[in-house]
Design goal:
The chain is an alpha+beta fold and 91 residues long. Helices cover 16% and strands 33% of the residues. Strand 6 (48-54) and strand 7 (61-66) form a beta hairpin.
Length: 91
């Protein structure tokens, strides 16, 4: 089962709780009564961070910012090897 990110926020859009995404053998969310919340579907926000909720529109929407994704060691190593292969003179 895949479970989305449950976000509980106040009337100004400040986030007070995020459950985070999860998959595997997990229980579904128990939704709060009388407290504003939004659930972001699993896998819809990648390489982004939710900073607040826009409450000025009828359907409240998350405000996100990008997360810088750094290359892994293996990716850097592969780039270096490819550059070296391109610089080698072939007779």
């Amino acid at each position: 089962m895949e479970r989305g990110n449950l976000i509980i926020y106040d009337s100004k859009g400040k986030i007070w709780y995020q459950s985070g995404e999860a998959d595997g053998d997990i229980l579904p969310h128990v939704y709060p009564v009388g407290i504003p919340y939004i659930e972001i579907p699993y896998g819809t926000i990648t390489n982004k961070r939710i900073v607040s909720i826009d409450v000025s529109v009828t359907h409240h929407v998350p405000i996100t910012e990008d997360i810088e994704v750094k290359p892994t060691y293996e990716e850097l190593e592969n780039q270096l090897l490819l550059n070296e292969n391109n610089n080698v003179d072939i007779f």
